[in-house]
Design brief:
Elements: E1 28-33, E2 45-50, H1 54-58, E3 65-66, H2 70-73, H3 75-87, E4 91-94, H4 98-111, E5 116-119, H5 126-129, H6 134-137, E6 141-144, H7 154-167, H8 173-192, H9 196-204, E7 209-210, E8 215-216, E9 227-234, E10 237-245
Parallel strand pairs: 4-5, 5-6
Antiparallel strand pairs: 1-2, 2-3, 6-9, 7-8, 9-10
Helix pairs in contact: 8-9
Length: 249
C-alpha cells in the first residue's frame, strides 16, 4: 500500500472488515477561519486533527490542534492552506438547518463580510427569511428540495397558507416531502392493503407518481425523488431559477 495519496480529485477507499484505514497519517479533519470566530479580529484561526473525521471534532472525543502546529505534521498541506486563505473567497458554502444558517448570515452581516452565500434549501426557507433583513437575505442561492412558496398554483399557495395557520410554522421542502409521502403510502395501501411486503414492493415499483411539486419514481436503490430546485433570494423573496433532474428522470 502506498504511503502517499495519488493525484486525484476524489479518492474512495472502502475499509476491509478487520483492517485499518491505510491513510490515517495523511488524512484528517479541521476547520479554519480568516477571522477569529471568538472576537471577530482579522487574524487567521483554525484547528485540525490528524487521522480523524468530523465527528471526532464535534463530539468532543478528541482535542484538536491549533493550525499553527500544522507544519510539524505536514509543511506542504499547511502551505496549501495558507495559499487558499491568501487568494480570498468569493462565496460562502453554507449547509445547515434554518436556525444555524440564519445565525451565520447575521454574523457575516455584523462583521461586514460581503460574500455570495450558496447552500441548501435553508437559505430560502421561510423560517430563515423571517429572521433576516432584506439586505441580509438578498442574493443567496440554494439548491435542495422543492419549496411551495415559489409556486404560482393557487391551490398550493392556499395549502401553504393553511399549514402556517394550523401549525404556526411555514411550510418548507420537508413539509412537502412528508405530505407527498403520506398520500403516496395511502394510495398504495388502498390498492394492496396493509401487508408490509406488499407495500414495500409497491413502493419499489412506483413510477411517475404525481406529488405536489414533483413526480416520484423509484430507482434500483429505492430512491424516489430525483428533482431538486435551484433558488435565488430577491430580497426576502425566494425565486425558482429552475429545477434540475437526475439524468434519466
Amino acid at each position: 500500500m502506498r504511503d502517499t495519496l495519488p493525484a486525484a480529485a476524489t479518492l474512495v477507499h472502502p475499509r476491509l472488515p478487520g483492517s485499518t484505514y491505510p491513510f490515517g497519517g495523511i488524512s484528517g479533519s479541521g476547520v479554519a477561519f480568516t477571522r477569529n470566530p471568538a472576537n471577530g479580529i482579522n487574524e487567521f484561526y483554525g484547528e485540525f486533527l490528524v487521522n480523524a473525521q468530523g465527528e471526532d471534532v464535534v463530539a468532543g472525543i478528541r482535542t484538536p490542534l491549533p493550525v499553527e502546529q500544522m507544519p510539524k505534521w505536514n509543511k506542504q498541506v499547511h502551505k496549501q492552506l495558507l495559499e487558499i486563505k491568501d487568494k480570498g473567497a468569493d462565496s460562502l458554502i453554507l449547509f445547515g438547518r434554518p436556525a444555524d444558517v440564519t445565525l451565520v448570515i447575521k454574523q457575516m452581516s455584523d462583521l461586514g463580510i460581503k460574500l455570495t452565500t450558496i447552500g441548501n434549501a435553508s437559505i430560502v426557507a421561510q423560517t430563515t427569511l423571517n429572521n433576516l433583513s432584506s439586505a441580509e437575505a438578498d442574493g443567496g442561492y440554494a439548491i435542495g428540495g422543492m419549496i411551495p412558496q415559489t409556486s404560482t398554483d393557487t391551490k398550493i399557495l392556499d395549502w401553504t397558507k393553511r399549514v402556517q395557520e394550523k401549525y404556526k410554522v411555514p411550510a418548507d421542502n420537508f413539509t412537502v416531502s412528508y405530505y407527498d409521502t403520506v398520500y403516496m403510502v395511502k394510495s398504495i395501501i388502498e390498492k394492496v392493503g396493509c401487508d408490509k411486503a406488499a407495500i414495500r414492493d409497491a413502493l419499489a415499483a412506483t413510477k411517475d407518481w404525481k406529488g405536489m411539486l414533483i413526480s416520484y419514481q423509484a430507482d434500483a436503490q429505492g430512491d424516489l425523488a430525483h428533482t431538486l430546485g435551484i433558488y435565488r433570494n430577491k430580497g426576502k423573496t425566494p425565486e425558482l431559477t429552475g429545477p434540475i433532474k437526475e439524468s434519466g428522470y
